């Protein structure tokens, strides 16, 4: 909250009103502030920036990695919907070659095909009695598209969806909304098993065979249980009532509380003998103060045990035995007490790693393609799964009409992406300095550049953003494929030639035109800013001359008056 001085508010603040551009059309105010983004066309921007008599200010909304120049260029290039027939025809021709639009059309087709094939998939699982009928009724729910999206994502990550659905729908009962219940269970499972979703994960136990992993799981389970028992025995020790005003500390906090009764009696005899021998052998016949103190502490421990309740004493004996034995074998109790928590944590980590590796082997399907097997496709050999996922095309449950439509649209998308690559190589600043390697064909190179250009256009990435950082922080699993593609392209880019001096003559001319346009835009902006400042200063001077001298001068109003 911002608090303003009342006098300042009375002299310098004026109530302003916000309105849409269409509502304010035909209205004239002193000053106008227009909030614009890249979705505004140039006619609307013109109306918004001509409402003020004294001053018009544009506030631009930019997306991530988008500059104000990008927004202004987009606004200037977009016209209103009420265009002529020729303009409409030209727009449609451009849209037909727009890779972003072609990808959106493909995505719409794939979404519908996914819903159909997953509906049939669940019906097959119900008929085969792999999942209960209640889970199969999820296909009739309005939340089923959420389940479809999750199942498609799991399929793309390499998860064995059939096995997972059998496990997740066990004991599902009769939920009010089966689709919502399945979606919730999938989300919970994903949070609990993140490594199963990572196709590149290689854990410390990944190289063990199934028999060795099973044996390790048994040993880790026993060790974890024993370590947890020792930790529980140590932490459950309680102070003892010995009949005095204050209870005796728990055995874990008494100097000799970790000794058994037999060990305590033996240590007392040894300590008394050592103390007596020292007193006899000492020339001054003086006792050993340290030995006497140890004897006193051990005698106090013996007296404490004798005075405590028999039940509490038996509990302490059991706790001492639990901490001092590992698999039935005695160990040094003091060493065990120092490391009991660390041992419990280590055993729990091993058990968790074993459980996660077993989960990966249960829920991940065997590799069926080069991508599944971890082999990267060559640069531009085909569209990535981000541009055109192929799961619906390869699924036998997808109707043939939808499969044919997807194949045809994929071909159109491939042509649009390839053309976008040709355009980017000639005009896009981030694509300058790229040199095609000999092992990559021209079409593959153009396709790879075009797919990166399509991703950048779909995500409103500015032209200044480096090529190698494209899709680095993507929000979907398929974005990683685009990022790998961008990095592969960047390895063939001349970093010391940002303006394309090593590129074609057309690229150098395009770079020169961009620099000239930028300089001209800056000159126009500076000139307009100077004129606005001069006009505002003149208006302020006239306003000051006309105001009465009994009141401080009031500045030019800061907001529109509608």
From TrEMBL:
Top-level taxon: Bacteria
Region (Disordered): 186-209, 221-258, 488-562
Annotated Low complexity bias: 222-238, 501-510, 537-549
Listed CDD domains: SF1_C_RecD
Family annotation (InterPro entries): P-loop_NTPase (IPR027417)
Name of the protein: Uncharacterized protein
Organism: Actinomyces lilanjuaniae
Biological classification of the source: Bacteria, Bacillati, Actinomycetota, Actinomycetes, Actinomycetales
